[in-house]
């Protein structure tokens, strides 16, 4: 058991779910503290029946803290984490800042739990759109070696944090009322629209979000020959990312085999009966911890291709659930 655990970014979209999960999964620790920016320092929250005051993220806040589960903007994670580690704290980080650092393991517990043992104080949790795709790829890769993936995402506004969720709700209300609306976060209206850009231009016309799907996938499978061609799209859905995924494997995997492989993988739920109109959608995957897969079919345009549809709660398996699972693995090793 850790003597003291801090939740950093405890007031955010991901931090809120981390608190809920720590409570629901009865994560044991001698003490908890909740940190955020000066904006929310002093506000109160309830955790496991007790009232806590949110503290400002400062270096001294980590004295005596053995584990932090953190979900802050990248630049905040860049600045505070090295000092927290020097003070003896292990940090499980949700931000994008440390993920590709060679000294930092990037972990999905169902995919590469062994990487946790290599940590030097920081363990990164992958990008939300990457996590659900990589978990879905894992049984196919083990059975037939994935060579190439073509993926298009349909990403919910909660993936952009609380400000993203506010933009969708307020923008939709304004549009329905025929009023002008100044979006807080998004560059274009998200209400009644889709936007084929998430993140900034990064590499050969691909965005930063798309390159995360390429590089994080290769890092977790420890194989940079896996080819990934992503298109990341923001859609006016409040929560849960959906992905259309086409995987090409070295050894052919049939639909029946894929269904069996998916169903046997911890953390994956198969929901697949087109005749009965059964497939995963954001409305039936919301607030669930698993990755849901449906529309499994052979690629009619290539011999070893398998196409499927994949939905997961980006705030849960795409973020908080994965981080808390990593924390549970660390706790079990003590
Ligand atoms: N949303 C997702 O689906 C998702 C999935 C995977 C990874 N992530 C990553 O997780 C991180 C958090 O995302 P989110 O969606 O939870 O964002 P969010 O809703 O905007 O929450 C951000 C959190 O960080 C805190 N924070 C901001 N600036 C700070 C500062 N200068 N010092 C200390 N704390 C500060 C905020 O505190 P205040 O309330 O005081 O402002 C808040 O608690 C990001 O790096 C994001 O890329 C998000």
Q: How does the overall form come out from the CA principal axes?
A: globular
Q: Runs with pLDDT <50, length 5+?
A: none
Biggest β-sheet description: 6 strands, parallel
What fold name goes in the CATH topology slot of the largest domain? Dihydrodipicolinate Reductase, domain 2
**What is the assigned CATH homologous superfamily of the largest domain?**
Dihydrodipicolinate Reductase, domain 2
- Tally of separate helices: 8
Structural class: alpha/beta
Number of domains: 2
The quaternary structure here is single chain
Gross CATH architecture of the largest domain: 2-Layer Sandwich
Strand line-up in the sheet with most strands: 5-2-1-6-7-8
Q: What hetero molecules are in the model?
A: NADP nicotinamide-adenine-dinucleotide phosphate
Order of helical and strand elements? EHEEEEEHEEHEHEEHEEHEHEEH
Proportion of beta-strand residues: 25-35%
Mean pLDDT: 98
Q: Class of the largest domain in CATH?
A: Alpha Beta
Overall strand count? 16
